[in-house]
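pinging the channel bc i need a second pair of eyes. not urgent but kinda urgent?? the chain im working w is below, pasted from the shared doc
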Amino acid sequence: MANEDNEQQAIEWIQFAKSDFSVAISSFGTENVLLNTLCFHCQQTVEKSIKAILIKRNIKFNWTHNLRNLIGNLPSEYDIPKFVYESTKLTDYAVSMRYPGDYEEITEDEYKEAIQLASAVLNWAEDIVMGLI
């Protein structure tokens, strides 16, 4: 059962998720902004959205960037949409893609998919946090 502190913290986490999402969509096409950076903010949107749900429900979880692990902590009473599970592919954007290294460049199509997944998870999580689901 959530208490008032958990609910307020969950709302704050959603606000931070929205901020990450705003950066991800508003910075597209900006000079010197890499798609890697924008996809990192998509991953952060999903991560913070899922953590908001867990915090609201007072569910203990490991502080990780691994979306699969976080999603695995969601209560079984929620009907978890397919796009939440699909968002686990964004985990790689949390660490390995943020730094120069040996990996394939992110394409615009991959960025667009990351935006779609982040948006869907954010909206779903916000509905839960706000008590609409």
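so DSSP finds five helices and no strands in the chain. and The domain at 4-129 is CATH 1.20.120.330 (Four Helix Bundle (Hemerythrin (Met), subunit A)). — does that match what u expected or am i reading it wrong
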